[in-house]
Amino acid sequence: MTNINKRYLPVEEIPPALSLKQIGYHFGGGHQQGADYLAIADTSLSVAGGEFVSVVGPTGCGKSTLLNLAAGLLMPTAGEVQVFGQRLSGLNTRAGYMFQNEVLLPWRTASENILLGLQYRGVDKQSQRQQARYWLARVGLTAFADCYPHQLSGGMRKRVALAQMLILDPDIILMDEPFSSLDIQTRYLMENELLALWEAKKKAVLFITHDLDEAIALSDRVIVLSAGPASHPVGEFSINLPRPRDVNEIRHQPQFIALHAAIWDVLRNEVLTGYQQQQQRG
Ligand SMILES: Nc1ncnc2c1ncn2[C@@H]1O[C@H](COP(=O)(O)OP(=O)(O)OP(=O)(O)O)[C@@H](O)[C@H]1O
């Protein structure tokens, strides 16, 4: 008989999926290219398993830098990033990423792009094809399996990129303004699709956006970053709107409007400060 001796941790001891602990990031300092600039300072934030957290802030405040630190693409110059309680010292292999500009390979079909990560992992070909078919169906692109990226609309290419990430079943999803290039209707569709996929699997999501409406509509929590330099959180808001949500409909609810006003109250000052500082730097 197998001796099952699992130790279940009390809820308060379960480490967050992602935790940034008093991190800072200084560009330059002699060993990197670019100007000497303290982008992030003294920033702590965490995302629990299954939680959807958005970060908003003025343009250029350090949102992408924060995400790159969580992805392990940059190493903090102060503090540390932890992934499920373990210090991150290289690429965050528990995370999947989706950036503003999706990077589909133009010479591969939608299906071949989707299974790319499985191929790198050495998954057998039959399983690659099976999983690609499943994910093509999940993102509504079965009929476009053999199309190349240039034959797809912007929204379709985003769906391929989403499937490309989700096929690897990451525990943490990192997204940097993934839908900002889309027209507003396609954007609502994609946001709803993202929520449906997230609600089915409940991964930890860290979502970067400059769009406050999008942040509120999608998230459990919204964190506001200050204007740089030395950007850091200046506000944190729980979004207790009911789920499942339709991102377009939820915007008209009084509770949404009240949350928007409260968050904008904090964000507005940072946006003004950020704008003035950018003019001075320019
Ligand atoms: N290599 C670099 N060297 C020096 N400064 C940099 C470098 N890369 C970025 N920065 C600065 O760091 C700050 C944060 O950049 P980041 O791209 O993280 O901001 P952001 O909030 O994502 O911007 P946006 O809203 O425009 O996408 C910016 O002021 C930028 O000018």
Defining traits:
binds adenosine-5'-triphosphate; 37% helix; ATP binding; Rossmann fold; alpha/beta; single chain; ATP-binding; 282 residues; AAA+_ATPase; 2 domains; 4-stranded antiparallel beta sheet; 6-stranded mixed beta sheet; P-loop_NTPase; transport; 9 helices
Describe this structure in words.
A hairpin with a 7-residue loop joins strand 9 and strand 10 (233-238). Strands 6-7-8-3-9-10 form a six-stranded mixed sheet, with helices on both faces. Strands 2-1-4-5 form a four-stranded antiparallel sheet, covered by helices on one side. The longest helix is centred in the last third of the chain and has 28 residues, at 254-281. It has two domains: 14-94 and 173-281, Rossmann fold (3-Layer(aba) Sandwich), CATH 3.40.50.300; 97-169, no CATH class. It is 37% helix and 21% strand. The mean pLDDT is 91. With 282 residues, it is of the alpha/beta class. It contains nine helices and ten strands. It starts with 17 loop residues before the first strand and ends with a helix. Helix 4 (125-138) crosses helix 5, helix 5 (154-166) packs parallel to helix 6 and helix 7 packs across helix 9 (254-281). One of its GO terms (molecular function) is ATP hydrolysis activity. This is ABC transporter ATP-binding protein. Pfam families: ABC_tran.
